[in-house]
Structures are given as C-alpha cells and as structure tokens.
Amino acid sequence: MKKIYLDNAATTPIDKKVISSMKKYWRDDFANPSSIHSMGVKAKKTLDSSREKVSRFLNAHSREIYFTSSGTESNNLAILGVAKKAKEFFPRPHLITTEIEHSSILECFKELSDDGFDVDYLKVDEDGLVNAKDVRNLIKDETVLISIGYANSEIGVIQPVKDIIKEIRYKRKEFNRGKVGYPYLHIDASQATQYLNMNVEELGVDLVTLDAQKIYGPKGIGALFVRDGIKLDSIIFGGGQERGLRGGTENLPLIVGFTKALEIVNKNKDKKLERLLKLRDWFFNEIKKEIPEIVINGSIKKRLPNNINISMIGFDGEMLVLRLDEVGIICSSSSACASGAGESVIVKKISEKKEDNIENIQKRAKSTLRFSMSNDTKKRHLKKVLKYLLKIRDNYKG
Fold first, then answer.
1. Which residue has the higher pLDDT, 259 or 343?
2. Is the same domain home to 155 and 287?
3. What is the pTM of this model?
4. Active site includes 337?
5. Pick the catalytic residue: 19, 300, 337, 358?
6. What is the residue range of 161's domain?
7. Are 35 and 114 part of one and the same domain?
8. pLDDT by residue (tens digit) across 284-326?
9. Cβ–Cβ contacts within 10 Å for residue 28, how many?
C-alpha cells in the first residue's frame, strides 16, 4: 500500500537534490572548518558561502546568520540568549509570547518565569490571531523580547507580524531606544519559510528561526537570524564557533543541504502556493458539505496554504490518526512536539473564545486532526481522506 503522507508540518521528506548536494561533504570535503590546514580552509569557504546564501534568502548580512542544530535550538538561543543578556540592564526583564506557541517557545518562557523573569502571555481570538494593539498594551519599560510564531505549527494561522512590529517601534520611540533597541521581536518562521515573505528588512523583525526539516532539507540543522546590534548571550559553550555565540563544530554536510533546500524554496513559489490554496479550499468546502459536524480550527483566510486542521466532534483524534494510518493516510492530531492528555492545547485555547461549555471545549480539542500538504499532494489524495473520514464516521461513531 502506497502511503499518502500529510504530516509535513512535523517533518518533510528530504529533496533528492538536497541529498545530492551533501554527498561529498560526508567523505571527501569533510574537514573541520576551524582547522588551519588546506582542507579546513576549503571547508571554511564552503561554510562562509552557505552563510551568504542563507543571508541572501532573508535579505540580511551574512554576519547576522548563525547555524544551530534545529528550530528548537534557534528558539532557545533567541529567547534564553536575549533574556540572559538583558539581566545586565534590568533586574527583572519582562518577556511576552502568546498562549498558543510551539513547545520550544513556551517551555523557554516557563523556565524563565520559574527563574524569576517577568512573563506575559498574549491571548488570541477564536481564529487564533493576536491583536497587535494588545502587544503594545503589554509592553513595559523592562520588556526586552516578544516571541511569536510567524505561522502556527498546528492550526497554520499567520500572525500580523508587520502590525506587531509597528506597535513595538511606537514603544521604542516612546522609550527613546532607537531602531533596534529593546524590545526585540523574535519570530519562529519554521512553518512559514516555504510560503510567506521572508525578507527581514520588509518584515522589520529582529530575530528569525529557520528549520531545514520543514522545507525538504535534512533534520538536525537550523539557523537563527540575529539583526546587527541585538544583544544576546550564548547558551552552548565550546570552541568559539559561530563567532562565539554557539559552540560546537559546524555540521557542514547538513548546512550545505539546508542552503540547497532554501534555494529550491524560491523556485516556482507562486505556482506552488496557488495550487495548494486551491486544494486546501476545495477540501474545506467538500468536508463541510459531507460531514457538517466538522469544525475548522483557525482562520481560513489568514492561514498557510498547506494547512488543514479540523475537529471531528464526537471522535478521538488519536483514534482517527490510527484508523487513517491503517489505510495508508499519514496525519497527526497535534504538533509532534506537543504534550498533553490526548488533546490539542491550541485548539482548546481558541475554543474557549466562543464556547463556555467545558465539555464541548474538551470534545473539540480531543477530536483534532491536522493534515499538512506537500508539493506532491494531489486532489485524489484528499478525496481518499474524505472517503475514509466518512467511513470512520459511519462505522465507529459512538
């Protein structure tokens, strides 16, 4: 049975061109970029070239790019690095995030809160969206960082980053802190990289997380954009690699693969977006007709083109995932990095905005399915999903 893979928000299959680009760096050009011999110098040139390619993708400077082991590490470095450095300037720095972030952000904020930092969580509306005015209202004199997912990893909603940075700039002006003074804005763009505007000058953001495994690149490699002038401390110590910010020998094969994946992202981007949007909207229309008890989670308009997140009320989401797996359809009930009692915390949060009944809120959160499409997803694949969801409803309800 050929599998229909619809869990691309968790991880994507690696592109064959990416695999090809990495081959010689495993056995031939394998030297440590920090070594001073000829092979090390050659490796350093490859590292520098890769850094330059990432910077061009973001419209940044190469000196603003730091390679990490993952999107999770990039988020940790951005949040913990800024917070630790800010202790030099404020006795109790203040940080802001939203209540629906990825665990690699929320766990950092929990750790900082336990360590005595002042933390606030922005609420979202029933579509999962932040109101930029709420950001301004939460900013204090001691606020050093706002960290927000550019696009949510579960429900795919796209946050109003440009509106948020306008509010931050307003407060910077009020505090007389200049262009890149506190508070900084960090965005996790792991899910957004393939689909949204990644020009950091146009966005106006200060720190950006990237993750190769979300864009048909290898696992175990990420990057963090840190705008010139941003102050942050290291969280990994070693031999001074990545200009002293992130110790550990750079993983050259994965870095090369990452940059190749970024290069591929920009090819025929508009056509890929248009195709996925049509598929997504077709599926939403069909499933509402065929299974009216289905609830679509998150904004439809302000949403990634590859994201389909629904609640099939009356069914257990994890059971649905396993039933679909039996017929070759691979999907998820929440983020692969989420933890909870078989329910989506994010769907629970947005359900609370328009539902008072706790039982109904839990039913919606426990019956969540996430289908995240890829460049290879076809309408026939989604038709099969619809066909088996109908079968499951008829055979297993109650």
1. 259
2. no
3. 0.95
4. yes
5. 337
6. 16-265
7. yes
8. 999 999 999 899 999 999 999 999 999 999 999 999 999 999 9
9. 9
